[in-house]
Amino acid sequence: MTGHSLIYAIAGALMVGIGLRALFLQAHLLTKIIAANVTASGTFLVLVGVAPFNGGAHPDPVPQAMVLTGIVISVSITAYALALLRRLYDVTGATDLPEERRK
Amino acid sequence: MTRGAADILVSLLATALAAGLVWSAVHLPAAPGLAGLVERNLEASGVESAVTAVLLNFRAYDTLLEIGVLLLAVIGALSLHPGEELSPAATEALSSGPEPSPMLMWFVPYMVPVAFVIAGYLWWAGSTIPGGAFQGGTVLGAALVLLLLSGRKFSIRPEAVATRLWLSGGLLFFLAAGAVPMVTGDAVLQWSEEWSGITIVLIEAGLTLSIGGCLAALVVGVPAHPPERALRGRRP
Fold first, then answer.
1. Coil, helix or strand at residue B117
2. Which residues of chain B have a CB within 8 Å of the CB of A102?
3. Residue among A82, A66, A13 nearest B51 (CA)
4. What is the pLDDT of residues B49-72, one digit of tens each?
5. CB-based burial of residue B17 (10 Å sphere; 0-12 exposed, 13-18 middle, 19+ buried)?
6. Which of A 13-42 lie inside 8 A of B, CB atoms?
7. Could you report the predicted ipTM of this complex, rounded to two decimals?
């Protein structure tokens, strides 16, 4: 594969690792939402980063279209999760889930 | 398992996954990919931009379901709202204070019309060069959010029929257009070569308007009331 896009795939792989760690270990739900976003963005970077160029100036259009679709899904889920978190805070005053609360 | 052990285990697993991804990205064998296939069928797709051809023709199902997910998120977020009009009051927490900043008030009348033109251009350009409904819709949504923040006479009323038609129109038109090929015995979303160009441009126009509205509705759709007011408002 071409060298100049490899840096994006590697950065994306690291973002997936960082995002997943925060998603599982951070109790604050806003942190979890951001962590899910970092993980998703990492996945997109990997997908576009490993897309073959075939000697042309642009990478394969199919992974590009899939990432574009993924970005919209990611935005939708983020907004809905934020609305749910806001509602949870309004009703209970909490920003984390009881079973994850550190003593 | 103690908290500390769980922390270490999850950290190790996440590191292993990241390392595995890096390893496979580096060692991925060269593959021809699908670019050639797209290139060979581009003429039949009705548009000149390869990414738009994939989004609105070859993999139109993805895009149809994607706008469905966006609309579902809007419905979900709005249904959590206490039901008041999504006016500037709902965006109070977004702006810097009770009064919109003078910078914003000066900026908005210049910026919003320019943003509308850019959104229209991105929609139109999408059939030949990078651009399209999602890029145009994002710019449109940002312009609408600026309008909402500036406290001008603009609001999104989820209870109004016109708003519901606006937000769901892109998906409804996409579905209707997708059903048309069935009349002549073709599959759903299988545009005829003759009409595919104009069909895609019209669907993208509907998607641009709906995506812009949906994104703006999502920004203001998160309830921004202080807890005591929100609770009092919902109990008769």
1. helix
2. 3
3. A66
4. 888 888 888 889 999 999 999 999
5. middle
6. 13-14, 16-18, 20-21, 24-25
7. 0.89
> Which residues of A are less than 8 Å from B221 in CB distance?
79, 83
Nearest residue to B134 (alpha-carbon basis) of B220, B214, B34, B46: B214
The reported pTM is 0.86
Spatial contact of B168 and B71, defined as CB atoms under 8 Å apart: yes
Following CA atoms B76, A66, B215, B135 in sequence, which dihedral angle do they give, to the nearest 10 degrees? -170
Q: How confident is the model at residue A31 (pLDDT cuts 50, 70, 90)?
A: very high
Q: What is the pLDDT of residues A49-94, one digit of tens each?
A: 888 776 666 778 898 899 999 999 999 999 999 989 988 887 888 8
Contacts of B70 in chain A (CB under 8 A): 72-73, 75-76
Which of B9, B134, B234, B157 has the alpha carbon at shortest distance from A24? B9
Q: What 3 state SS string does chain A have?
A: CCHHHHHHHHHHHHHHHHHHHHHHHCCCHHHHHHHHHHHHHHHHHHHHHCCCCCCCCCCCHHHHHHHHHHHHHHHHHHHHHHHHHHHHHHHHCCCCCHHHCCC
Contact (Cβ atoms closer than 8 angstroms) between residue B100 and residue B151? yes
